[in-house]
Amino acid sequence: MDVPRIVVVGGGAGGLELVTRLGRKLGKRKRVEIVLVDRNATHIWKPLLHEVATGALDSGLDEISYQGHSAAHGYRFQRGTLCNIDRNAHILTLAPVLDDEGNEVLPSRSLGYDLLVLALGSVSNDFGTPGVDEHCHFLDSPQQAEAFRRDMLNTFLRYNNPQRGEHARMVVGIVGAGATGVELAAELHEASRMLQSYGVTHLDSDHLEVHLIEAAPRILPALPERISQAVQQELEGLGVRLHPSTRVTRVEAAAIHTSDGGRIDTDLGVWAAGIKAPPFLSELGLPTESNHRLKVHDTLQSTEDPHVFAMGDCASCPQQDGSTVPPRAQAAHQQVSTLYRNLRAQLDGRPLKPFVYRDRGSLISLAHFEAVGSLMRGASARSLFIEGHLAKFFYASLYRMHQRAIHGTLKMSLIVVVDGINRFLKPRMKLH
């Protein structure tokens, strides 16, 4: 008797946690074959990419090899990019894998499935703004975060040129004051201080000018106003220049233009304004929204095909109040449990259960300076505002929860110990 195969496309936070659970419970027992497909060879938790971008986190130390992880957790890894789905034949087509020079490493391949899970996450939405793609950095992947870090270091080094004068200022423009933009703005100030302490640059944070541009009336528009106000005070204390209610009309190589006729001259530009699902999802023949998110039932099952599921940022999952599940890391984390049960139920012919999103609160980290957020208190949905060391503790625990889900409690505990040792032995930021 053939063993059924579940294929998960996308090894982000939700996808990796799902295949880990499926592999441990079903894959190791040979009851189901579990296959993970991802274009990258390694995984890093996406909410940490702003730290990779400033060197506060060394991706070489924190990234996880899918190949090594799969061997230990009962699933199989296939590197590749999804380019087509034959839903009648239940076959995926993966595009060829190319090296840095454009040479083919792996040819195009086909992969059959009994159940398919699309967990492809999201990418930045430039809303068609001219010049963004050519002149802005994005933080959607480790490769993009590393590209920004290299440009940041090179820009700091160029400002070491004494001919620029003693009062030279390095200017960074960040478009989008959501969590990514806000946390990056704070990390940049910490990076400038660290780079000066290591002798990389003579510029300190007083010579770093960070502009945070947001089209909404306030920063962090998706979060409670109390959090927004507290974070605004912290950022203003760091010297970050805030531009609420300001829409960007175009971006040039060294300037950001706004709808009020303003111009912000920049050395580096970052686009962190809004997200959308990968556009090619709208080309697969499955129902999608205008932002390319796949339409699913509350069971996370495609509205068109009962053999296809979607989760995380790329899924538009309805809730009882008429809204859809927000594209947040905690939502993907919660969906893993429901999807695990529903995939087993689908294979066994049992009814599927709906996913109910529970908001656990919001936390924003401002480098070592501060953390601010709220925690939801039980079924009453009352929020508890927290800040300072307590907020930093809960913020750090989010990553530890992810590590526990993909490694187990013992290994996660050992990783915590190793991280503490590395903070003692290694520089506090990646300098090369």
Written overview of the protein:
- This protein is α/β, with parallel strands linked by helices.
- It is 33% helix and 24% strand.
- Strands 5-2-1-11-22 form a 5-stranded parallel β-sheet. Strands 15-14-13-19 form a 4-stranded parallel β-sheet, with helices on one face.
- The protein starts with a strand and ends in a 7-residue tail after the last helix.
- The mean pLDDT is 91.
Supply the number of helical segments. Answer: 11
Structural class, judged by helices and strands? alpha/beta
Radius of gyration: 22 Å
Helix content: 25-40%
Give the neighbour order of strands across the main sheet: 5-2-1-11-22
Q: Unreliable segments (pLDDT under 50, ≥5 consecutive)?
A: none
Characterize the largest beta sheet: strand count, sense, and whether it forms a barrel.
5 strands, parallel
In terms of DSSP E residues, the strand content is 15-25%
The tally of beta strands, per DSSP, is 26
- Distance between the terminal alpha carbons, to the nearest Å? 53 Å
Q: Look at the structure and give the mean pLDDT.
A: 91
Shape from CA axes? globular
